[in-house]
């Protein structure tokens, strides 16, 4: 029987399996919560029914793609314009045909990558449909990549195009990467940051965590390691696997890290007003 894609309805992680998967490796990891009522996996053709593609430009040259209704935790996939072509970062939970056609219409992808497994979404769809020459994942996170084929394992730094550079922070996952768009001053921060938002989507607080659901903070050494990387990057907006947040700056993040290093670290949000 050929392997086919199945998604976990609890978290949205995709697996290729020869039958209904026995468990979800992302949910059984300490960083995620287990489903309350047991496993529920759905095949690709079932997920495709009734879902529509959505995309929106959040800054000139940066477009977020997602689907409605969302899948799992509701991730977005970012498509970033560069002088060399389009780079995909993170993955939507599912890509309806219209979304794939839109990326193809724009010229396809020269590279596809993600911060860590919580942002993978349906990267396998983009690889299957668009066949980008580069699929890049941090080499220390290869154990999570069984659904797609990594063609370029990343070490600590990788330049996808002039002004678009990935850096390994570790921390949330050992191979966790962030992506810095130097020209647009945007940090694609993965899960090394989480913004608390008000009803209008404005940031009211910032946090950093090893495990959000379990509220496990980063260790002091993990924070110091991230500090060295993020402190050298200039940005005034961040993009997580879930949302784009204006007004979060390098100074805010370093103030958060300073606070977490000053005492026992916490995983909950610090008010942004206290980090200004």
Keywords:
six-stranded mixed beta sheet; globular; 6 helices; 19 strands; 276 residues; single chain; alpha+beta; seven-stranded mixed beta sheet
Describe the structure.
Helices cover 18% and strands 31% of the residues. It is an alpha+beta fold and 276 residues long. The strands form 4 sheets. It has a 7-stranded mixed β-sheet, covered by helices on one side. A hairpin with an 8-residue loop joins strand 5 (62-68) and strand 6 (77-82). The longest helix has 12 residues, at 250-261. It is globular and about 55 Å long. The chain starts with a strand and ends in a 5-residue tail after the last strand. Pfam families: Lactamase_B. InterPro entries: Metallo-B-lactamas, RibonucZ/Hydroxyglut_hydro. Residues 139-215 form the Metallo-beta-lactamase domain. This is MBL fold metallo-hydrolase.
